[in-house]
Design brief:
This protein has about 500 residues and is an alpha+beta fold. It is about 40% helix and about 20% strand. One of its GO terms (molecular function) is ATP binding. One of its GO terms (cellular component) is mitochondrion.
C-alpha cells in the first residue's frame, strides 16, 4: 500500500500540484507550487459561472435603453421644457434617487404596493422616490424655506404594470415646476396652467385640453352624496381611474371592492359626467346638493377666480372644469389639473394613439408641514410633465414623417488627401477645439479621402477642412461645404474666423 510518509517533501509538492491541476491546463513546475495550486483551484471554481448557455441579456421589465437617435430627440424635448421653466423664474434643484422609507410611506397610502423598497443599507430603510414632489417638500422643511420657485428633472420609479405602447414604464423621467410660499389666491395656480399650455404648444403635439377641478369640491361632492369620510381617499383613488376605465367599471370597483353603497355611487355618477367652463362653475354654485357643502363652495369660489386669471392669460379656452378629475395622490388639498391630447398622431389606417395624460399637477398646502418638526405650513402648487409619454408621441410622429435624426453636433471634420499628415491634422483639430468648435477626425494614420467625405455625409457634418502637401507649403487650408461640395482656399491664420462666420450664417 502506498505510504504518504515515505514521499520526500519536494516530490510530495509536485504530486499535489498534479492532483489539483484542472483538466487541459499546461504543466507547471513544482517550484512555487503553492501559488499555482491556489490559481488552479480558483480557475476550477470560476469556470462553471463563466458558462451560461441559457443566460438572456435584457433590461429589467418596465425599463429601456435609449439609443443615440432617441437621446437627441429626448434632449430637445427636455431643453424646451427647461427653457420654459427658466423663463418663469424657476431655480434648478436635485434630490437623492432614494429617500428614507418612513418619509414616503405615509404620503402614498393608496400606492404603497407601487413603491420600490431597498434592503437595509447601513441601518437605514430606504425606498426609491415615487415622484419629485415629496422630496421637494422634505427639502423645504429640512432647510426651513418659506418661499421657492423651483424646477427639477429626474427619474422616478413605480412598480406598476408597464404599457410600452403607451409610453408607461416602471422607471421614467419627470419634469416638475413648483411654487412654494404664501401668496394671494390662484395667481401661482394660474401661472402653472399657463406654463403647461406654453410647453404643450411649443412641443407641437397637437390640440390639447387641460382638465381642472378642486379636491375640496371632490370631498364636498363625496360628503353630500353620502360617502363615509373614512372612504374618501379610497373612492378618490378609484375615481382617478376614469381616464383609463369606463364609469361602469369604476362604479363596480367602488361598490364591490371598496364597499360603497350602490345609490351613493350613482349620485357620484351624476356629477362625474359634468364638464365645461366658467358657466359650469356658476351652475354648481346653484346645485341643491353641492351648494350645501362649505368645502365645495370654497373650491368653486377659487375656480371662479382662477378662470378670470386664465382669461387674462389668454388660455381659458384650453381649460375645462371637469368633475370627474380626482388625482389619486393623498397630498393634494386644492386645485388639481391634468392635460390630455385631444387627437394623437397615428399611422395611416390605425386608431389614434392613446397615452393618457401628458401633464398634471395641483395644490398641496399641507405636505411641507408633515415634515416640519413644528408643523409650519408652506403652501405649494406645482405641475409635472410626462416626458416618456410625450417622447413616445414625438417618436411616432417622426416615424410617420420619415424624419432623420443627427446623433452628433460635429460642425467641422478635419481631413487629408495624402499620407503622413496625422500630425498636421492633430494640430488643426486641437486649434478648432480650443476655439470652441465641435470637430472630429478619423483615428487612422492614412485614411482615404473618399472614406472621410462619406463619413461627413452620413453624419450630417456641414464643413470639412482638407490639408495636404500643397496647402501646407502655401500656408492655406481648403474649406469644403459637404452639402454643396464647393471648396474655397483660406489662409491658415484666418481659418477659425471663416469657420465661425459660416457657422453663424447657417
Amino acid at each position: 500500500m502506498f505510504h504518504l510518509g515515505l514521499v520526500p517533501g519536494r516530490a510530495w509538492g509536485a504530486l499535489l500540484c498534479q492532483l489539483l491541476r484542472p483538466p487541459r491546463t499546461v504543466c507547471v513546475r513544482a517550484v512555487g507550487c503553492h501559488g499555482q495550486v491556489a490559481e488552479a483551484v480558483l480557475t476550477s471554481q470560476l469556470k462553471p459561472h463563466q458558462e451560461k448557455p441559457n443566460f438572456i441579456i435584457k433590461v429589467p421589465k418596465g425599463t429601456r435603453d435609449l439609443s443615440p437617435q432617441q437621446m437627441v430627440v429626448r434632449e430637445k424635448i427636455l431643453d424646451k421644457i427647461i427653457s420654459c421653466f427658466k423663463r418663469h423664474g424657476a431655480k434648478g434643484l436635485d434630490t437623492p434617487a432614494f429617500e428614507l422609507k418612513e418619509m414616503l410611506t405615509e404620503k402614498y397610502e393608496e400606492n404603497l404596493r407601487l413603491m420600490y423598497d431597498l434592503k437595509d443599507q447601513g441601518g437605514e430603510l430606504l425606498s426609491l422616490r415615487y415622484d419629485l414632489t415629496v422630496p421637494f417638500a422634505r427639502y423645504l422643511a429640512m432647510n426651513k424655506l418659506k418661499k421657492m420657485k423651483r424646477y427639477q428633472v429626474g427619474k422616478v420609479w413605480r412598480r406598476e404594470s408597464p404599457t410600452i405602447a403607451q409610453g408607461r414604464y416602471r422607471e421614467f423621467c419627470q419634469c416638475d415646476f413648483d411654487i412654494a410660499g404664501q401668496y394671494d389666491p390662484m395667481i401661482p395656480d394660474a401661472e402653472c396652467l399657463k406654463i403647461m399650455c406654453e410647453i404643450l404648444s411649443g412641443l407641437q403635439l397637437g390640440d390639447f385640453l387641460i382638465k381642472v377641478n378642486d379636491r375640496r369640491i371632490v370631498d364636498g361632492m363625496y360628503a353630500v352624496c353620502g360617502v363615509p369620510e373614512s372612504k374618501f381617499r379610497a373612492i378618490c383613488a378609484s375615481m382617478d381611474k376614469l381616464d383609463k376605465m369606463s364609469w361602469k367599471d369604476v362604479r363596480h370597483e367602488m361598490v364591490v371592492k371598496k364597499g360603497l353603497a350602490p345609490e351613493v355611487a350613482d349620485r357620484i355618477g351624476d356629477y362625474v359626467q359634468c364638464h365645461g367652463g366658467i358657466s359650469l362653475v356658476e351652475q354648481m354654485f346653484q346645485d341643491p346638493r353641492l351648494s350645501q357643502s362649505k368645502l365645495a363652495v370654497e373650491g368653486l369660489a377659487d375656480l371662479k377666480l382662477l378662470f378670470e386669471y386664465l382669461t387674462l392669460f389668454g388660455i381659458a379656452e384650453k381649460i375645462s372644469f371637469d368633475l370627474s378629475l380626482a388625482r389619486g395622490l393623498d397630498y393634494y388639498t386644492g386645485v388639481i389639473f391634468e392635460a390630455v391630447l385631444l387627437q394623437l398622431p397615428a399611422q395611416a389606417g390605425d386608431e389614434p394613439l392613446n397615452v393618457g395624460s401628458v401633464a398634471a399637477g395641483g395644490r398641496y398646502d399641507e405636505l411641507v408641514s408633515q415634515f416640519d418638526p413644528k408643523g409650519h405650513t408652506v403652501p405649494c402648487v406645482g405641475l409635472s410633465i410626462g416626458v416618456e409619454r410625450i417622447f413616445y408621441i414625438v417618436e411616432q410622429k417622426m416615424k410617420t414623417s420619415g424624419e432623420k435624426v443627427r446623433t452628433t453636433e460635429t460642425q467641422v471634420f478635419v481631413a487629408t488627401a495624402q499620407k503622413n499628415f496625422l500630425q498636421e491634422r492633430l494640430k488643426l483639430i486641437a486649434q478648432l477645439w480650443d476655439a470652441g468648435i465641435k470637430a472630429e477626425m478619423l483615428y487612422k494614420n492614412n485614411p482615404k479621402l473618399l472614406t472621410q467625405l462619406h463619413y461627413c455625409e452620413n453624419m450630417g457634418i456641414p464643413l470639412v477642412i482638407i490639408i495636404g502637401e500643397q496647402e501646407q507649403n502655401e500656408g492655406v487650408i481648403k474649406l469644403r461645404s459637404v452639402a454643396s461640395r464647393e471648396e474655397v482656399t483660406v489662409k491658415r491664420e484666418n481659418l477659425i474666423t471663416e469657420i465661425q462666420k459660416r457657422l453663424s450664417e447657417s
